[in-house]
Specification:
Blueprint: E1 2-4, H1 11-22, H2 26-39, E2 41-43, H3 49-66, E3 71-73
Antiparallel strand pairs: 1-2, 1-3
Length: 80
């Protein structure tokens, strides 16, 4: 699951989302948030399809309620 950067969602909101929905520690959430900010995206976690789809819906709904355009996408794991 990837969080995508935008120019409007506050960094603290991203950290809160990572803590609440992905159970990341404060330090891990901040590191992921910085990756999103600097690299355009960050990995929130790896989940089964059903869990990933639920998390996308939860995070998207929370972001919209707060008025932020934060995007989270579930992508299939790349196999080499």
């Amino acid at each position: 699951m990837l969080l995508l950067n935008d120019d409007y969602t506050p960094m603290e909101f991203v950290v809160a989302v990572l803590s609440r929905y992905f159970r990341k520690s404060e330090q891990d959430a901040r590191l992921i948030m910085l990756a999103v900010h600097h690299k355009g995206q960050g990995v929130a976690g790896v989940y089964t399809r059903d869990v990933a789809e639920t998390k996308v819906a939860q995070v998207s709904a929370q972001a919209r309620r707060e008025g932020y355009p934060l995007r989270v996408v579930a992508e299939p794991e790349a196999h080499e």
